[in-house]
Protein 1
Amino acid sequence: MSQDPVFNLAEALARVDDDRETFQMMVELFLEHGPKDLAAAQAALAACDAAGVARSSHRLKGAILQFCAPAALQACKELEESSKAGDLTRGGALSATLEREVQRLLAELRPLLDQGMAA
C-alpha cells in the first residue's frame, strides 16, 4: 500500500471555500453513492458492458475528484478510459485496484463525518 495520503483534506476544503458544512454533505453523499457507483461499474464489467463500466466509473470519478484522492482518481480514470475504448481485458485488475482505493478513501472519510468535521 502506498505511503502517500489517501486524500488531501486541505485541498478538498479549499474546493468548497473552506465551507465545512458543504464538505460534510459531500462526504455523506460519497459514503452513500460511491459504493453504489463502484458496484454498478463492477456489475457492468461482469456483464461485459463496456459502456456501462464507462458510465459508472465516470460518475464515480467526478465524486472522487472532489476529495483530491490521487490514487483512487487514477484507478478510476484508467478503468473509464479502457472501457470507453471498449477494452475490458484489464477490467478485473483495474476494478480491483479501484475498489481498494475507494475503500481506503471511505475509511478516511468516515471518521471525519463521525467527528462532525472537528478536523
Protein 2
Amino acid sequence: MDDIEANAFVHAVVRDWKSAPLTDVDKALCQYAAKLTQSPTSMSPADLDQLRKHDLDDRAIHDATQVISYFNYINRVADALGVEPEDFIPPWGK
C-alpha cells in the first residue's frame, strides 16, 4: 500500500468504519471499541464472545481493552484540563 492508498484508507475508517474496507476482525474490534467508549456500563460477556468468534484470545482482548480504555482516559483528562493540541501536529485533513 503506498502513501496515497494508506491515506485514503485512514480517511475511510475515520469517516465511517462500518463501511470502510476493514477485515471482519477489525470491524469486530471497532464495534467493541465503540460500545466500550459510548456505553461502558452495557458491556457484557457476550461482547467478549463476539471477539472470540474472530479467533481473538483472552490476551488479545485484554490488550485491545487496555488500549481502548487508555485512549478514552487520556482524551477525557485532556478535555477536562483544556489541553491544547500540540502545534507540531497539523489539523486533520491538512
Protein 3
Amino acid sequence: MRLKYLAAGALVCSALAAPLAAYAVSAADLGQSLTPLGGEKAGNGKSGWQAIPEWTGGLTAAQAPRNYRPPQHHPDPFAGERPLLVVNASNMAQYAQYLPLGVQDLLKTYPQSFYLNVYPSHRTLAVPERVAENTKRCATTAHLRGWAMDGCVGGTPFPVPSGSSKDKALQILWNHITRFRGVYVIRRASEAAVQRNGSYSLATNDQELYFKYYDPKIKTLAELNNVLFYFMSVQLAPPRLAGGAVLVRETLDQRAEPREAWGYNAGQRRVRQAPNLSYDTPIADADGLRTADDTDIFNGAPDRYDWNLIGKKEMLIPYNDYQLSSPTIKYRDLLTRDVLNPKPQRWEMHRVWIIEGTLRPGKRHIYSKRRFYIDEDSWQIVAADQYDNRGALWRVSLAFPKEYWEVPMMWSTLDAFFDLQAHRYHVMGLTNEEPTEFDATKPAPPDEYFSPQALRRRGIR
C-alpha cells in the first residue's frame, strides 16, 4: 500500500515538474505586467473551460450587483452562467493533469457523490490601493530570517518570489499567511463535523478578527508590536457550550513570541491560558477532523517542515463560490452525506503555485507531508493534500474563495476538510442561515479590546 501511494505521488510530482514557462520579472513589474499582488496580468490565450482571462482590475463595488448592501449576503454576480464542463469519476482521467491529487482521490472515493462543475474563469481579485502600494514597497524590503518573515507590514511581502526552491516556497507560504483579508471583520458562522451516515450537529460562534498587520494607522513593524492579528470567538451553540469564548493573539515572528491563546469556560467562569493551540492540536468543534494549523488551510509557524517549490501550473480550483453562502441554500442541503454538496460549488481554471512541506527530522506532527495549491492572484491556499506517517494520502482540504467587493478583498466563504480514511468531513464558515454574512464596516477597536479580561466579559453576556 505504501509503495502504491509513493508511486502515485511520484507520477504527480513528475507532472508538476513541468511548470509554466518562466519569465524574468521584478518589483518594477507590479502594476505593469504583474497584478498589484504579483500575479501574471496576461491570460493564457486558450478558450472554453481552459481559458484564463487577463486580469483587468478585479471585481470592485463599482462592478458588483447594485442591490447589495453590507452586511447582507452577497448576491452571485455570475448567477446566469452554466457549467462548461462536468468532471466526474468516469471522465477524470482526461483532466487529471489539471486536478490536485486530493481532488482526484475524492472523485475516486465518492464516484456517485462528488463531481466538479467547471465554469468560465473570472479573475475577481481586487484590493485597496494602499495594500497595492505597500506590496510594491515590501517587494524591495521584505526578507526571510530562517523560516520567519521580516521587513514588511501592510502588504504582500513577496509578490515576486526569488532565490532557492526552499526560499520561494517559504515566501509563497508567507504570502498566504499575511494575505489581505480586511482590517476588522465581524461575522456569525457555524461549523459542522459530518458523520459517515450524514448526521451532524452545528457549532455556532460570533467571531471578530482584527488584522493589525493591515491597519492603515500602522506604518512600521515597531508599531505593529509583533501582532499579526487578534481573533475572538464566543460560542452560541450547542447550548451545553454556549457562553464559552476563545481569544488568540497571533504573532508575526513566532520565534520571538509564540502565539498566545486563552479560553473562557462559561460553567467555571474562568479564563485560562491555552498553551497548546497550535500545530497538530485537534480542534474540538471539528470532532478531531481539523488540526489547529489546518485552520485557514494553513496558519501559524512553518518551522516543522522543510518547504520546497514544485512549480506553477494551470489547474481547476474552487473560485468565486458565491452560491455556497447563498441564503437560499439551507445547511441540510449543503452538508450531504460523504462530501459537501458539489452542485452549488464553482470550479474555474486558474494559475496556482504548488509548494510541498516534508516533516523535518526530529519534529512531530500527524502529517508527514503537506502539498499546498496557492492561487496566484490572492495567495490563498485553495487546496491541500495531507499525508499520514505511512506516506498515504489521508486528508484533503479545500477553500472556496470569493471576492468581498465592498472591502475589497478575497477570502474563502467556507473551508472543507475531508478525511479519506474515516470517510467523514468537517466544514467551517457556514453563514447561509445567519441574518447577515460579513461586516467589515466598523472601525477597529484598540488592542485592549482583545485582552483576557475582555474575553470573560464577552463570554458572560
Protein 4
Amino acid sequence: MNYNLIVIGAGAAGLIAAGRAAENGATILLIEKNNKAGKKLLITGKGRCNITNESSQANYFKNIFPSGRYLKHAFGKFFTAEIIDLLNKLGLKTKTERGNRVFPESEKAADVVNALFKYINDNKVEIKYNCKAEQILVENNKIKGVKINANGKISDILSKNVMICTGGKSYPATGSTGDGYKLAEEVGHTIVPPKPSLVPLVTSGNLAENLQGLSLKNVNASLWLNGKKYKEEFGEMLFAHFGLTGPIILTLSKYAVEELDKKNKIKISIDLKPALNEQKLDARLVRDLNENGKMQIDNIFKMWLPSKMIPVFLDILKIESKKPGHQVTAKERKQILLLMKNFEFEVIDYRGFKEAIITAGGISTAEVDGKTMQSKIIENLYFAGEVLDLDANTGGYNLQIAYSTAWLAAEALTSVKI
C-alpha cells in the first residue's frame, strides 16, 4: 500500500502528527521500534506527565534554546490552550499547578498516552510495532518512502511524505537512541552534536553523598563560572550519592554542561536562607543562641537546618556537637552564617543520557523551514519534536515543542493536495 505519510516514532510528536494528518484526510502509517507507543511519555514528570505550561509565548521563548523564536509560527498554530482542549475532548481532565504546569487530574502519565492513542485510533491511523526505520528512501531529492526492519524482515514502504519524530538520545531505554539523527544525516542534514540536558551534576568529594536523599525547598542555587556568578535559580533541589539534582539543578545543568565541555571551572553555591540577608540571618542566630544558651549546639541547629545536614555542618565547621549555645563564639557564629549562605560544591562532571530528561543538539533548524517543519534539503521530509536542535527548561516546555512542531508539520503537508 502507498501511504500519504509515514511517521517514524510513536512518542508525543509522532502521535500528534499522525492523528492530525489522518484527521485531515491523509492515509498514515505510524512505525514504532518498541512494542508499544509513548514509552518515554510514561515516565515524564515522575510518572505524572507535565503535559504543558500555561504561560505566554514570550516566557516560552526565554526558556527554549538555542532560539525559542524559531517556534513562533508553530506556537501560533497550536499552543497550550489547543493541546489542553484536544486532550479534554479525548476524555482527559487536566489541572494547573504551581508555575503554570499542567498535569492530568489523575496524576497518571498513562492516561495521557491513552488519550493520544485514542486520537490515532479514532482517526484510523495504522501503526506497526517492533518496526525500525533503517533508511529514508529518496529519489531526485524527493521522498520516496522508508526502508524498514520489522522483526528482522527488511522491506521498502512507499510514501509521498515522511516525518521523523524519533526523539533524541535521553532515556535510551525508552527507545530514544538517536536513530533520527542517523536517518537525517544520511540524506544530507547537519546534526548539531547531541548533549545531555536537564541532567544531574556530579560533584567532588563525599559532601553530597553524605546528604543523599535530602530534598531542599525554597533555596537559591547559583552557578559560578571560573570564580564569577553566572546563573541562579530558586526552588527545589535534591542531594544524590554522586552530586546534585532536582528542578533548579537540572535547569542550571544546561549551562554547566556547556562550560564543563569547555574545561571551565564550575561551582554550585546553595543559599539555604535566601529570604534573609546576612544582617537579618545574623540577628536570628544571635537571638536563638542567646535564648537557648544552655542547649547543645546540635539541638539548636534543628531550628535552622534539616536534621541530616547538622552533622555535616558541624564537621565542616569543626564545632563540637555537645557545645552549649552560650559558648559559641562570634567567629563561629559568623562561620555558621557564611556556610548557610554559601554551601558550596565543586562540579566535576555531569551524568549521561540515561539520566538526562532531554537532549540538547540535533537536526539543525537552519535546514528546516520553521513555517512548515519541512526539510530545506529533501522535499516532503518533515521533522518534529526532540530530534530537532531545540531544548527547553523543565516545566512542560519540551513536550509543548513536540506537540506544536508535530501539529504544524501535519497541517503543512496536508494543506497541499495529498
